[in-house]
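Troubleshooting log. The previous structure file for this entry was overwritten by mistake, so regenerating from the original sequence record. Sequence copied from the archived sheet and checked twice against the printout by T.R.
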Amino acid sequence: MFRPFLLASLLLALASGCRESAPPPPPVAGNPDTPAARPTPVATGWGTVEGRIRLSGTPPPPARMPTTGTVVSVCGEQAEDRSLVVGGEGSLAYVVVSAKDGAALPAARQSPPEPVLDQKRCLYDPPVLAARAGGTLALRNSDPLVHNVRAASGANRAFFNVAMPLEGMTVRRPLPAAPGEVPIRCDVHPWMHSVVRTFDHGYFTTSGADGRFRLELPEGSHTLVFWHERLPELARTVNMKNGETVQVDLEWSADQLK
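Regenerated output below.
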């Protein structure tokens, strides 16, 4: 006498399960908010932009800051400020070069290497780094001294703060997810300073000791942004064609230094 009731309950449960597992409706064509309406850009060809960055005029001598008695044997009596590193013929090191439209471009053909910030002779090396936002920063201590690495992010004065008491130790910490500037300091040795410029794409590089840089870009028109901690930001437009190399040389004047 209960069989009709049990059969009806079973059919009702199956119907409910089908309703719960039904696929969502297809995206509406032409709606820019749906994934189907945002095709992933595909590069049809690649070119290379390269150049040399210089500082004209006479740069000021680097500032020197006294160290403390406990580190003199390792770091010397004075530490040199490396926020401005100028080589022969005015070559300017540690300029960050990036594509302004990088986030809208296809993925870069080569992923940038993991950035490494070392601590050598009571200085951060290098003084400027470029990296992916939300990526990993490797921290290394090459000194037989206690250092710490404190990274700020926006209003957060200590995005991370890592004590590094051992020579040769390496640790890794995540960078902020939002692109921008990440200042880094050592509370033990207040003259130590570095900055990490982060991006939400892989189209960036830094100039070397000779002021030269090289960056691979997809075909098309792009705006390159040149950033230095102590100089006004500059931009240049490049038109890339498949297999071609575009030369972009840039020069700041020493009287533009902050």
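Residues 3-21 form the longest helix (19 residues). Archived copy saved in two places this time.
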